[in-house]
């Protein structure tokens, strides 16, 4: 007992001193005072052998070029602790520093050949090689360790990391996939590495290896198809991913959520064909009472509508087919609070694409009057209904509905949207000063879209209100905008022509050209729209519409005219030459996306 107490007493005194010496030695070493560091590290290593202290002692001697002393210390320590194979690595480093590469390699080889079936020893030796960036020796260490332990995959993740550092893509992928097979919980880690380090060519290699593993896998492990679907999604090959998730849904007898999620991803990336195929799979293979059946129905309809109306070519027949699908949905599920959003979409189709405003109005009126409908959905129906009344020239009905939503959702984005539309209505009617005061308030909206539109209209009114004492020219222009809103395109064009005839040389000329571009774009006459926007860019260098024209023109080249290089050039011009524009930030994002950058 007395001996034990004495030991603990000595230890209690020595530990603080050791910690203090360690801190001081560390400081000397970091400051390059190797002579002082060597003395302290030698003392600490002799007092209580610690591989770190000894390593720092030898490193200090090497920095002082005291090679003989370093070699003597290493040989002595190897006799004491031959099981510490990292000493061979340090000895090899010493020999390399003296340009004795062959002798150094012998030390490295000896370390690997002396390995035992000891996981800690294997990892320790591999890490020692890793510190010296000797990746090939570290790889050989793990490979020999795997054989000694007789555990396939035990070091696969470590090997993947080493191959990644070397830039050897094929074995890196293979090792990470082995690690995934060994421990499925590593799936997220493997995906992170693939996402970070694999380019398109690397992803194709991963896809190839996964296909081969799936074909060889007799146990039908779902891990590989799941990873293959993930790789396909990274490549934006949603069709390929769909094949895998459908197969997994069948094999695992799932509820369709996996397929539905993929459909949503494809739809958001505008691969409407694959998205529709995903939704149709859920509808056709899951019972009506299943949790994702109704959502697949809804999303399928919405995606079909987007596929037809999102700037793509469509025929009247396409619209009628979509109308029939909407009506079949409402007939199946009834006109009730749950189907209200679908009814709003049908009303939009009727009003904006099939030009049946009375039918759209009737559909929305039912939703507005429906008991139990979500108040946000009712407000959205009211906003749409107000728009369609305005399209039919029923101004008072429109402003009443806008005001109701504004009052109910005062501080909500729905309220801001209603206030903006009401102010725009006042602009159409010629009450410019009141409209501008409302737009000035809305410039502070938390919705960037509302704030940008409000700023545009505020600046436009301010820029033109004082140019003509009667504001007749501005009213004529506003009339043309209202006619465009009402889809009365021929009358809108005629009104713009009248403006130019009655007010030759007026400062609204550039706005007229810009609005013609918007009219042509709504009519899907994209070449003519581009010509109008280009005219603004070429002929009106001081126009407040110049940044809008550049942005619209770039969008046409990107999406409709198939010249992404030209689009990239225009976006670049916008964010460089018009950096103060509210569109500059969005233009920079689109430029980077076209250039292939990762845009967050």
Automatic annotation (TrEMBL):
SMART domains (alphabetical): TPR
Gene3D superfamilies membership: Tetratricopeptide repeat domain
Domain of life: Bacteria
Residues spanning the signal sequence: 1-19
Keyword list, A-Z: Repeat, Signal, TPR repeat
InterPro entries tied to this protein: CellSynth/LPSAsmb/PSIAsmb, TPR-like_helical_dom_sf, TPR_rpt
Keyword Signal set for record: yes
TPR repeats: 510-543
Keyword Glycosyltransferase among UniProt keywords: no
UniProt protein name: Tetratricopeptide repeat protein
Native organism: Neolewinella xylanilytica
């Amino acid at each position: 007992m007395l001996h034990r107490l004495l030991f603990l007493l000595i230890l209690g005194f020595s530990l603080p001193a050791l910690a203090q010496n360690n801190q001081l030695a560390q400081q000397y070493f970091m400051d390059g005072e190797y002579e002082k560091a060597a003395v302290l590290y030698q003392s600490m290593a002799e007092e209580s052998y610690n591989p770190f202290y000894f390593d720092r002692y030898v490193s200090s001697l090497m920095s002082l070029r005291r090679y003989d002393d370093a070699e003597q210390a290493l040989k002595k320590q190897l006799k004491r602790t031959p099981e510490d194979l990292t000493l061979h690595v340090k000895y090899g480093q010493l020999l390399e520093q003296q340009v004795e590469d062959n002798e150094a390699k012998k030390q490295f080889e000896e370390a690997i050949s002396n390995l035992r079936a000891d996981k800690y020893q294997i990892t320790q030796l591999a890490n020692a090689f890793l510190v010296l960036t000797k990746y090939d020796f570290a790889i050989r260490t793990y490979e020999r360790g795997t054989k000694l332990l007789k555990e396939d995959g035990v070091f696969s993740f470590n090997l993947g990391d080493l191959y990644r550092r070397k830039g050897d893509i094929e074995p890196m992928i293979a090792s990470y996939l082995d690690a995934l097979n060994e421990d499925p919980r590593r799936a997220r880690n493997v995906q992170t590495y693939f996402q970070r380090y694999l380019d398109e060519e690397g992803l194709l290699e991963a896809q190839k290896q996964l296909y081969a593993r799936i074909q060889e896998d007799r146990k039908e492990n779902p891990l590989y198809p799941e990873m293959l679907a993930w790789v396909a999604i990274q490549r934006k090959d949603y069709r390929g991913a769909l094949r895998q998730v459908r197969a997994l849904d069948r094999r695992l007898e799932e509820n369709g959520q996996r397929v539905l999620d993929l459909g949503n991803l494809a739809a958001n990336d505008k691969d409407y064909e694959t998205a529709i195929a995903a939704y149709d799979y859920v509808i056709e293979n899951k019972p009506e009472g299943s949790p994702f059946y109704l959502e697949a129905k809804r999303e399928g309809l919405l995606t079909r509508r987007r596929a037809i109306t999102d700037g793509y070519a469509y025929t009247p027949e396409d619209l009628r087919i979509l109308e029939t699908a909407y009506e079949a949905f409402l007939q199946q599920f009834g006109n009730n609070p749950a189907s209200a959003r679908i009814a709003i979409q049908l009303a939009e189709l009727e009003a904006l694409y099939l030009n049946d405003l009375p039918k759209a109005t009737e559909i929305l009126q039912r939703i507005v009057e429906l008991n139990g409908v979500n108040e946000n959905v009712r407000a959205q129906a009211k906003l749409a209904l107000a728009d369609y009344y305005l399209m039919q020239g029923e101004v008072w009905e429109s402003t009443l509905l806008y005001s109701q939503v504004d009052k109910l959702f005062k501080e909500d984005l729905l309220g801001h949207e209603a206030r903006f539309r009401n102010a725009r209505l006042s602009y159409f009617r010629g009450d410019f000063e009141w409209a501008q005061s409302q737009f000035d308030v809305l410039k502070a909206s938390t919705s960037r879209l509302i704030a940008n539109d409000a700023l545009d209209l505020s600046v436009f009114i301010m820029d033109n209100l004082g140019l003509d004492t009667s504001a007749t020219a501005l009213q004529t222009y506003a009339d043309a905008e209202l006619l465009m809103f009402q889809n009365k395109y021929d009358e809108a064009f005629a009104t713009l022509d009248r403006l130019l005839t009655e007010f030759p040389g007026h400062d609204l000329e550039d706005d007229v050209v810009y609005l013609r571009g918007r009219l042509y774009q709504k009519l899907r006459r994209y070449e003519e729209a581009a010509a109008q926007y280009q005219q603004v860019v070429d002929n009106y260098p001081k126009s407040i519409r110049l940044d809008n024209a550049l942005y619209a023109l770039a969008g046409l080249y990107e999406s409709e005219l198939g010249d992404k290089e030209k689009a990239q050039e225009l976006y670049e011009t916008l964010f460089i030459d018009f950096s103060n524009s509210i569109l500059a930030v969005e233009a920079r994002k689109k430029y980077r996306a076209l250039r292939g950058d990762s845009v967050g």
